[in-house]
Specification:
The protein is α+β, with helices and mostly antiparallel strands. The protein is built from one helix and five strands. Strands 4-3-2-1-5 form a five-stranded antiparallel β-sheet. β3 and β4 form a beta hairpin.
């Protein structure tokens, strides 16, 4: 997985029925865009994470392009 500052990580719960949540990458701590990442969660708290296999990266450029189409 590779991410950049400004990308959004969509994180799924580990249990069935757990809600997905999002966290914005504020710092990339690994080499070449690899984990770990420092992220700001939707509720404002900041943590360092190694994303699980179910995590999806929404790039900042893809989100801008989608917003431009609206």
């Amino acid at each position: 997985m590779r991410a950049s500052v400004g990308d959004v990580l969509r994180l799924t719960g580990r249990r069935a029925g757990s809600a997905e949540h999002r966290a914005t990458v504020v710092e990339v701590l690994g080499p070449g865009g690899e984990p770990p990442y420092r992220v700001r969660h939707d509720d404002g708290h900041v943590t360092e994470i190694f994303p699980s296999p179910g995590c999806v990266v929404e790039t900042a450029s893809a989100r801008r392009a989608a917003a431009d189409m609206d």
